[in-house]
Amino acid sequence: MRFTARIEIHDNEYVQLHERMKAASFSRTMVDSSTGKRVHLPIGEYVSDVHATAQKALFATMQASLPID
């Protein structure tokens, strides 16, 4: 199942956030199902399809983002 996370931080440490989210198995790119083309997501938006449940995806997102903001 694919999960999407949208994170807004206030200190503009998005480089650190991107690294932490990547380590938590989230990506800033996805494939558009209608065109088959790779799409780059906006800053602070991530997708993942490796987490088994929404709760696990939420916990991974929280663990990656809370230390930053």
Class by alpha and beta content: alpha+beta
Number of helices: 2
Strand order of the largest sheet: 1-4
List how many beta strands DSSP finds. 4
Overall pLDDT metric: 92
* C-alpha end-to-end distance: 28 Å
For the sheet with most strands, the description reads:
2 strands, antiparallel
Radius of gyration, Cα only, in angstroms?
12 Å
Low-confidence stretches: none
Give helix % range: 25-40%
Task: Describe this structure as you would to a colleague.
- The protein is α+β, with helices and mostly antiparallel strands.
- It has helices at 14-23, 54-65, and strands spanning 3-6, 29-31, 38-40, 45-48.
- The strands form 2 sheets. A two-stranded antiparallel sheet has the order 1-4.
- Helix 1 packs across helix 2.
- The longest helix has 12 residues, at 54-65.
- The chain is globular and about 35 Å long.
